[in-house]
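S.,

Sequence below, as promised.
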Amino acid sequence: MEDALVWLPGKTGCYTTKSGYALRLITLPPTGISKPLFPWLLWNLWTSRNQLLFEDKKFSEIKVINKALRDAKEWSLAQPL
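The prediction came back faster than expected:
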């Protein structure tokens, strides 16, 4: 079985813009961060991957996510209003 991108269909069995927006509403619990977290998650996945490959350090998924949230909050607080 190959990996594939899959969108869950709506009630009619079709993927619609409306069902896409409904899926968009399913997010992490509130973080207090108004900017997207995706770049922070990617960066922390990349750095934890490098630490695994080059330093043999392993991090759990929760630690990577928590670090991404901390980094995003710190960056957000450092930005001018």
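The chain is about 55% helix and 0% strand.

Coffee later?
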